[in-house]
Design a protein that fits this description.
Chain B is of the alpha+beta class. Chain B contains twelve helices and 14 strands. The chains are: A alpha+beta, B alpha+beta, C alpha+beta.
Chain lengths: 777, 285, 162
């Protein structure tokens, strides 16, 4: 097991089989996706299947007095109705704690919590059966203010209590007071992953009722399997999952949604059962990004050197724990941003409420922390009389600098380069091109003169992979047979393009052009989750190891058959080289034989945090900067993002086309959080569970994105390549808000800095809720 | 019978005679309700599709009277494009803000009226133009001012056996314009919408407001002040008058707080849009 | 007067599909997917807000989730499966090359909408592409590669005819 997995020869200098690392290889599933033949999990149906539907709580908090399913069972065409009483194993699941019931028993804790499920001959019958189920609730007062969970003034809404996780970070001189201090309180609203491919699955029971097959769109097959097996009282080996085509994930498929329900119905009915969520159901059926309230106070020398960070984080985890604990740790440990800082006093809570449960969404706690710390850096710049870029350069981290947890950054850390290269990218044309979409308000024709342009920038640090001692790994089996290589992995392809680079890596490592991957399912070991920007590193690392295992066998055989020193042999391009001289092609050397190797790739262990939040708890880090240019109509508060520029620390771009795709897609999500996306709940009830009222950016809202890829090969990452999925969506949000503030300043509008995302028109146009930012001394 | 498609207006009157039919034009409102099971069609429902009646799919302009007649099944896409956009610019502007290209290819002005959403994009312009609506029914046809048809949110005075066949608007000499506030550049429900028509021939102005009341409505006081104070001969309007008209329109608005926006912002939006539209009218932009 | 009962013929990509048992008010999207076996068109919102279900009816792009199936008997319907007529169309190929496909869920709707856009506007500006495709949501790509794919297609068509 190796963490470095440096290429045997530097990639640039070696000959490559076509389609190897570093090329913009086209995705292998692309043809099927453009001609409509690609099968998503919602496209699969099986003869004789039943439809299913879920009955959900209409109340954010209520005691269940009675559930009567008899009227539903009486509807013709209904095959089964299940509730908590029908759960054969443990009525509890969750990624970290098993605190969430499959079906509610005594109490419902959020609007949308599942209470029962139905299987019937068609969707229409399911709907009528759902309507027929009688549930009597005693409505209770919901906990909707997270502060009441922190201060303990609200009764426990769950046996595990209202505080999911609390963590403090204390480092250096916690009483230090800087020559300059700035503070503010920041709010981040609830964002939804809003993947287009709605939740869908098909479960087929084994004839003995002790196992099943499940086709499902998910992020982590084996973790789903673990939870399904536990809830259904089955052996894990009897729960066989296959990945259906996934229509995006962004964290929203990491938790169980429909998996246990549809599997249970299949077992109970003895027939295949299909489940598919509507958009409204999807909005309440998966976890969301944690809304957060963050107070920060930064202390600096007069020359702008950052000396201390104080912060208080409150993350609203909603009704069930999901991964709130880990999200909190990510948030508090990234409080300082990508800046040197020797003193810190940070405290954070992830708490329970009767809001929709929150968990993983791209960025995982760092989105919230970064918004706060970058707004703070803007305030600090102003207070110290420095340019926003200069203060960041002054404090920019380098390899060897430490987080406020004491952990040193061992990876390449080109923070200054991220900043300077971002700012060096060309600015957009001064004048609008006159098209209606280029003006704030677009075709709504709201703009006249008085539109002002602003520029803002922000920088982020993001951890890659999992943390706090979690033994994360990925498994890949490589088989070479008949001159062709085949990879078997359980890595969830959710659109990010792992299947593309897996083949590229194999081509480069094996010198074989003809590479394919097999069905993605649980017939091989776990690949871990497609999340945390980890699959390039972890599953990619496993591909490297598996292929090198096969390559080693091929070279062993070649050495023996050609009577050469094994130590002189290497694969370069399609050749086996002996001491740099071509000996025989890999294809010829294979000569009809078969080779196989399975690798389980682990990263170096991480540590837990002590009670002062000290410990090397993260695995690796990546850095990004964004610059935003925004045109603002100050009187109406409408805006147009004109351009985003970004330089991202990627290590090595294994597939530049895929990397650009991740960056542009991440920028769109960060833009959405900045100016339009928010799940709105009033008294615990969601108001906008539809694409009509949960607005994600359309093509007409997206500006051109200028990209600079910073390729400083990372000495620790396999193949030198860092994960690229999350960094693009993090600092773009504060960059846009900073640009809005800049525009307002230029327009002569005197008001405090914007402290909340998403920014709404009234936040810009109406002086009213003043911000709580103060500058001193 | 899932769908009947009458091919003439007489066939249409016959089919709607019982009153218990569901009318289908573009389907962009009806189908949403059916897809979400907010509305369920009983198995014996007759759906009457309007797409096979040629008169309904065209618009015409009578130069001598200056009247524009828009068939009930004319789509937003038709209204957006030349030559209609020259004939009735404000309606073309409103059309361009509706939904998406796909929605505009199917959705109709008649559907916008029949749905009578307080946020309906075509309605402020139609009201500001003084539009009238042709209704066909088994007991006779009638022409009704649009203003009289809009009763409340999603409620109209159209009888169960009546069908909108056309919308009539005048060709206006002067200036007309529409503006709408939305948080996103496409597919967005209006947060506040204003239409202003400066009718030089009639020497009358109308300001109509959308998304700030239970129905779209004409801001009568603001319209009256503007009509009386606009310098029709010199084609001018003093800044102070513009401000007064804008403030009056904002005061006439009855906006609410909801998940899309606040009453305060909507009222502010009405003031700003009214002011900007009048200024554009003065400059004939 | 035409009357279309619970049975009708849907002409899709040049092929007549005999469809029966239509529910009252059944959408074209459901009919295509569940009765014609054409699952290329996707449902992601059922309210015309995402464009994943986009098809052409007599050459005009509409949301099939908002189209009543029975009402388009006699029309010529084109879905993503029919855009390429056997091979991939130049636009489909351009999507692949530009990296405009990630999860792919929005792709069929976009291919159909962009096909119609280029028919109507063979030489669009980037802004016109954006306004023309504003009814198609994508959550993965951020749209940059999609705009490029459409502009590349227009460019290639221009230079091959010039």
């Amino acid at each position: 097991m190796s963490d470095t997995l440096a290429p045997a020869h530097p990639v640039e200098s070696r000959q490559q089989v076509p389609g190897g690392i570093g090329e913009p290889v086209l995705r292998p599933d692309g043809g099927a996706k453009v001609d409509g033949s690609y099968e998503f999990s919602s496209d699969r149906s099986i003869d004789g299947e039943l439809w299913s539907m879920t009955l959900r709580s209409p109340h954010p908090r209520a005691r269940i007095i009675l559930v009567d399913t008899a009227p539903a069972l009486a509807v013709p065409g209904v095959a089964a109705v299940v509730t908590a009483a029908d759960v054969p194993g443990v009525n509890g699941f969750g990624l970290i704690s098993g605190d969430q019931p499959v079906f509610a028993t005594e109490e419902v804790r959020f609007v949308g919590e599942p209470v029962a499920a139905v299987a019937a001959s068609d969707a229409e019958t399911c709907a009528r059966a759902i309507e027929a189920i009688v549930v009597i609730y005693e409505v209770l007062e919901p906990l909707v203010d997270p502060e009441r969970a922190v201060d303990g003034s609200f009764e426990a809404i769950h046996p595990d209590g209202n505080v999911i996780r609390h963590q403090r970070i204390r480092r250096g001189d916690v009483d230090f007071v800087g020559e300059v201090t700035v503070e503010g309180t920041y709010e981040i609203g609830m964002q939804d992953q809003a993947f287009l491919g709605l939740e869908a699955a098909v479960a087929v029971p084994d004839s003995d009722g002790a196992g099943l097959e499940l086709l499902v769109a998910t992020q982590w097959l084996h973790e789903d399997r673990r939870q399904i097996a536990a809830c259904l009282g089955l052996e894990e080996e009897r729960v066989r999952l296959t990945l259906g085509g996934v229509g995006g994930a962004f964290g929203g498929r990491e938790d169980i949604s429909l998996q246990v329900h549809v599997s249970l119905l299949a077992l109970v009915t003895g027939r295949p059962v299909r489940s598919a969520y509507s958009r409204a159901e999807s909005f309440i059926g998966h976890v969301h990004r944690h809304p957060a309230r963050i107070w920060m106070r930064h202390h600096a020398d007069r020359d702008g050197t950052l000396r201390k960070v104080e912060a208080r984080f409150v993350l609203d985890g909603g009704a069930y724990a999901s991964t709130s604990s880990a999200v909190l740790i990510n948030a508090v440990t990234h409080a300082q941003g990508p800046y040197r800082c020797e003193n810190a006093d940070v405290e954070g809570w992830a708490v329970r409420s009767n809001h929709l449960p929150c968990g993983a969404m791209r960025g995982f706690g760092v989105v919230q922390a970064c918004f706060a710390h970058e707004r703070q850096m803007d305030l600090l710049a102003e207070a110290c009389g420095l340019d926003a870029v200069d203060i960041r350069l002054r404090n920019a981290m380098e390899t060897g600098d430490r987080l406020i947890t004491g952990q040193p950054i061992d990876n390449v850390a080109p923070v200054a380069r991220c900043i300077t290269e971002t700012m060096a990218l060309p600015m957009p044309e001064e004048d609008s091109d006159g098209h209606v979409l280029s003006a704030p308000g677009g075709a709504g024709l709201t703009s006249d003169d008085g539109v002002v342009r602003g520029v803002g920038m922000a920088v982020s640090i993001k951890n890659l992979m999992y943390s706090e001692g979690f033994d994360d790994f990925a498994t890949v089996r490589c088989v070479v047979r008949d001159g062709r290589a085949s990879l078997k992995f359980a890595t969830a392809e959710v659109g990010q393009g792992f299947i593309t680079i897996a083949l590229q890596i194999a081509r480069t490592e094996l010198g074989i052009a003809d590479v394919a991957f097999e069905s993605i399912d649980t017939a091989v070991g776990s690949a871990g989750s497609t999340s945390a920007s980890r699959q390039t590193w972890m599953s990619g690392g496993a591909v490297v190891e598996a292929c090198r295992g096969v390559a080693a066998q091929i070279l062993d055989m070649a050495a023996a058959e050609h009577d050469v020193d094994r130590a002189l042999l290497a694969i370069e391009g399609e050749w086996i080289m002996s001491d740099g001289i071509p000996l025989i092609t890999v294809a010829d050397a294979l000569d009809g034989r078969e080779f196989e190797h399975t690798a389980e790739f682990h990263h170096a262990p991480t540590a837990e945090l002590d009670e002062d939040g000290q410990g090397d708890c993260h695995t690796a880090f990546a850095f990004t900067a964004h610059r935003a240019v925004v045109d603002v109509d100050p009187e109406l508060g409408l805006l147009r993002v004109v351009q985003i520029a970004t330089a991202q620390d990627v290590g090595v771009a294994l597939n530049p086309l895929s990397v650009i795709g991740q960056i542009e897609g991440g920028v769109a999500q960060g833009l959405g959080l900045a100016v339009m996306e928010e799940i709105i709940q009033t008294d615990g009830v969601i108001r906008n569970a539809s694409f009509t009222d949960y607005l994600i950016p359309t093509i007409a809202d997206m500006p051109p994105v200028l990209i600079s890829l910073i390729e400083e090969r990372d000495p620790i990452a396999p193949l030198g390549a860092k994960g690229v999925g999350e960094p693009p969506c993090i600092s773009v949000t504060p960059a846009i808000v900073s640009a809005i503030d800049d525009a307002l300043r230029r327009a002569g509008v005197h008001r405090s800095a914007l402290t909340r995302v998403p920014v709404r028109p009234q936040d810009i146009a109406l002086a009213g809720e003043g911000s709580t930012t103060t500058v001193g001394p | 019978m899932p769908v009947v498609l009458p091919e003439t207006l007489d066939e249409l009157r016959t089919v709607t005679a019982g009153g218990d039919v569901v009318l289908l034009a573009g389907g962009t409102d009806l189908m949403v309700a059916l897809n979400h099971r907010a509305r369920v069609l009983p198995p014996d429902t007759t759906v009457v599709g309007l797409s096979a009646i040629p008169e309904l799919a065209t618009w015409s302009h009578e130069p001598s009277s200056g009247e524009i007649t828009i068939g009930a099944c004319v789509t937003w896409a038709d209204l957006e494009r030349p030559p209609f956009d020259q004939l009735c610019p404000a309606l073309a502007q409103a059309a361009r803000t509706v939904g998406s290209p796909q929605i505009r290819n199917a959705g109709t002005l008649a559907g916008n009226i029949a749905t009578a959403s307080p946020a309906g994009d075509g309605l402020p312009v139609l009201l500001a133009l003084g539009a009238t609506v042709d209704l066909a029914g088994p007991s006779g046809d009638r022409n009704v001012p649009l203003d009289d048809l809009l009763l409340g949110p999603k409620r109209t005075a159209i009888e169960p056996d009546e069908v909108i066949t056309a919308i009539r608007v005048p060709e206006v000499q002067g200036w007309q314009g529409y503006a709408k506030i939305g948080v996103r550049n496409a597919m967005v429900i209006s947060v506040a919408g204003v239409a202003v028509v400066l009718d030089a021939g009639a020497r009358r102005a109308r300001v109509a407001l959308g998304s700030v009341g239970p129905t779209v409505f004409v801001a009568e006081e603001a319209s009256q002040i503007l009509s009386e104070s606009f310098d029709w001969d010199g084609w001018q309007c003093e800044e102070s008058i513009i401000a007064t008209v804008a403030d009056t329109a904002a005061a006439e608005a009855r906006p609410i707080d909801d998940h899309r926006s606040t009453a305060a912002y909507r009222r502010h939006g009405v003031r700003v849009l009214t002011s900007r539209l009048i200024s554009r009218g003065v400059e004939r932009r | 007067m035409r009357e279309i009962g619970t049975e009708c013929t849907l002409t899709v990509n040049g092929v007549a599909h005999e469809v029966s048992g239509l529910h009252p008010g059944e959408s074209l999207l459901d009919a295509l997917r569940e009765r014609c076996g054409l699952r290329g068109s996707k449902g992601a919102c059922q309210e015309g807000e995402c464009g994943s279900c986009t098809v052409l009816v007599d050459g005009v792009a509409v949301c099939s989730c908002l189209t009543m199936a029975a009402s388009v008997e006699g029309c010529s319907i084109t879905t993503v499966e029919g855009v390429g007529a056997g091979d991939l169309s130049d636009l489909q190929d351009a999507f692949l090359r530009a990296g405009a496909v990630q999860c792919g869920f929005c792709t069929p709707g976009l291919i159909v909408a962009a096909t119609a856009l280029l028919e109507r506007q063979p030489d669009p500006s980037a802004n016109e592409v954006c306004e023309g495709l504003a009814g198609n949501l994508c959550r993965c790509t951020g749209y940059g590669r999609i705009v490029k794919a459409v502009l590349d297609t227009a460019e290639t068509r221009r230079s091959s005819t010039s």
